[in-house]
Every structure is written in C-alpha cells, then in structure tokens.
Input
Amino acid sequence: MTDCIFCKIVKGEIPTLKVYEDDKILAFLDIAQINAGHTLVILKEHSDAFSELSDKAVAELMTSVRTLAPKIAKAVGAEGFNVGINNGKAAGQIIRHTHVHIIPR
Ligand code: 5GP
Ligand code: ZN
Output
C-alpha cells in the first residue's frame, strides 16, 4: 500500500532499526519503546489486520515471532516477554499493516 508507513519501512523509504530480515519477514524496533528491545514483527506483504491472514501467513509470522522473541529478550537481559497483537481500531490498532509486538519484560 502506498500510504502505509510499514510498507514504506519495508521499501526503505522510512529509516528504522532492523532486528531481523528475510525475504518475507521484517522485525524492527518500535519507535516508542515500552521496554528496551520492544520489537515489531511484520510480513513484508501488506495486510490490514491479523484476522485477515491466511493460515500459511500466520504460520510464517508467528514462527518468526517465536524464534525471535527469546533472542531479543536475552539480548536486553529480560527474563521474559509479552507477545501482543492489536487487531482492529477498537483494539488499539493504529497502524493498519499487520504487526506483532514483542515486549521484553
Ligand atoms: P499498534 O497500536 O498499531 O499495535 O502499534 C503500532 C506501533 O507502531 C506503535 O507501538 C508505534 O510506536 C509504532 N510505530 C508507529 N510509527 C512507527 C514508525 O514510523 N517506525 C517505527 N519503528 N515504529 C512505529
Ligand atoms: Zn503496509
């Protein structure tokens, strides 16, 4: 989507601090960190919300989250982490490009 901030981050049009990248996934630090290491994980392909993803896309996204989250937590000296998804405006989703929050605790 041309007016999507996270698609612009994927295309390199907006700078970000990348945590991980492959052909399908991008993980980058949240601009407003709740805790050190607060990371957003996205599929590069645009979708508006988690509930719209195919089973395959969910598997790709959440497998990456499961792999990355313990590593990020360890890197910042956290003992655990929260994984969060805001799905829809009423649930606090501000950016309409599906993303998963990893918040070290
Ligand atoms: P939501 O409420 O949609 O789940 O969370 C969106 C998140 O994206 C927020 O935590 C916000 O700080 C983060 N965010 C918004 N714009 C940018 C940006 O341009 N760069 C980065 N790295 N994070 C952003
Ligand atoms: Zn997008």
Q: What stands out?
A: The chain has a mean pLDDT of 97. The first strand starts at residue 18 and ends at 21. The two ends are 33 Å apart (CA to CA).
